[in-house]
Amino acid sequence: MTASAGAPPPVSKVAILMGTCQGASFLAEQLASIERQTLVDWCLVASDDASEDDTWTLLEDFQRRHPTGKVLLRHGPGAGFACNFLSLAWQPGVRARHYAFADQDDVWEAEKLARALAWLDSVPAEVPALYGGRTRLIDAAGRELGLSPEFRNAPCFSNALVQSIAGGNTMVFNEAARALLAHYEAVPHTVSHDWWIYQAVTACGGVVRYDPTPTVRYRQHAANLIGSNRGFGNGMSRLCRLWEGGFHAWMDCNLEALSILRPRMTEANRAVLDEFMRARVAADPLARLRHGLRSGVHRQTWPGTLALRLALAMGKV
User: Fold this and answer.
1) Residue 217, strand partner residues
2) Of the candidates 33, 27, 36, 88, which has an alpha carbon nearest to the alpha carbon of residue 216?
3) How far apart are CA 119 and CA 234, in angstroms?
4) Beta-strand relationship, 107-108 and 216-219
5) Separation between Cα atoms, residue 245 and residue 107, nearest integer Å
6) What crossing angle do the helices spanning 267-281 and 285-295 adopt, rounded to 10°?
7) Distance between CA atoms of 203 and 180, rounded to whole angstroms?
């Protein structure tokens, strides 16, 4: 935490965890949408990864407009966006009942936090709980492009192993879910923070709510590191990554990270994980397919699951 952070915040209902890097173009609009939230009991913790534009100045201006402790600023670890967000999730001195990831270039609908907490508050505090959902896509000028895909199958670990269904910019989670991220420094190569928390919460017996009603306007522009899953072009890109071996490398990273949580996983999910790992190392395609089917791993659509099984048999997963 930097000297500009101010006093430690009180325990807010929700701590907004924002990762920034070269975000000056759209940051002001996102900060304004946070100020318009109907749920006002929030604090913002922003972690900036060495921006060279006016991002830090905008954050400091925002901090000055609010009471001491309402807005905290820090310099990020400089190890990529996933590490920046995960380090925020375990930032010492920041405590809240719930935590919300925030991207620097989106726009939140006014009820975003209130809608998430309406569900989270219904979950017992000791149960890891994660809320996420669809987004409304906008271009750099704020014009609407459509909606992200709607996923209808129930979130679960056998899906989380092979698919991320909600963007981090939609995610809000409780303290019990945050506790699963305590060892983030041991998983520096996690593919993305949103996929990782979906895996962690479901692996350890938590609950996940996928909301089909979008409350985030997700900006699509040239500087996005990871864009929407919407459209034929993005689908073809994922297929190419699958067959070129990129997805296999992602699996290696995620499975290494999951090994840290193995003692906290449910017995059933350890069995799913073990069967999936057997599928990846089996000697022949039929054995890989057999273990894959036994594991129950699947994607949210039947074409996606079919492609996954074929790729698994071919040793691409």
Assistant:
1) 107, 136
2) 33
3) 31
4) antiparallel
5) 34
6) 170
7) 10
pLDDT tens digits for range 87-117: 888 777 788 999 999 999 999 999 999 999 9
pLDDT tens digits, 149-178? 999 999 999 999 999 999 999 999 999 999
Measured distance CA(317)–CA(312) in Å, rounded: 5
* Chain center to CA of 264: 20
Cβ distance 123 to 234 under 8 Å?
A: no
Asked if residues 173 and 102 have their Cβ atoms less than 8 Å apart, the reply is: no
- Rounded to two decimals, what is the model's pTM? 0.89
- Helix crossing, 232-244 with 246-261: angle to 10°? 80
